[in-house]
Design goal:
This protein is α+β, with helices and mostly antiparallel strands. It contains 3 helices and 4 strands, in the order ααββαββ.
Length: about 110
């Protein structure tokens, strides 16, 4: 899964003018890629400016360690490829099996 996400993120960074006002566009592109590679079990969500990007992954592992690791790796990959988000943007990973609790949160 890590390789697939990395390849998809490389596509996200190509040709993107990365200014502070492009955070919503970058978030929507990220969600589109997540939805296309079918990592999320429901559509990725973006509410608007300075909001979380919410990814739902159907997992029986309701501990946050793997989700937190994936969150940090995804965020670091985006940053290393020059995909920037203004302050306040986060990636949130949740599972329908976690009783509504977030499994991971990290800054974008």
């Amino acid at each position: 899964m890590k390789v697939v996400i990395g390849a998809a993120l490389a596509t996200l960074a190509v040709g993107t003018a990365l200014a502070e006002d492009n955070s919503v566009i970058n978030a929507l592109r990220l969600c589109s890629l997540i939805d296309q590679i079918r990592v999320s079990t429901s559509p990725c969500e973006v509410s608007g400016a300075n909001s979380p990007v919410i990814v739902t992954i159907d997992t029986t592992d309701t501990t946050s360690s793997k989700a937190q690791q994936a969150c940090v790796e995804l965020s670091e990959t985006l940053q290393s490829q020059g995909t920037d988000f203004s302050s306040g943007w986060t990636l949130q990973i949740k599972s329908p099996n976690s009783g509504g609790k977030l499994l991971a949160v990290c800054n974008l």
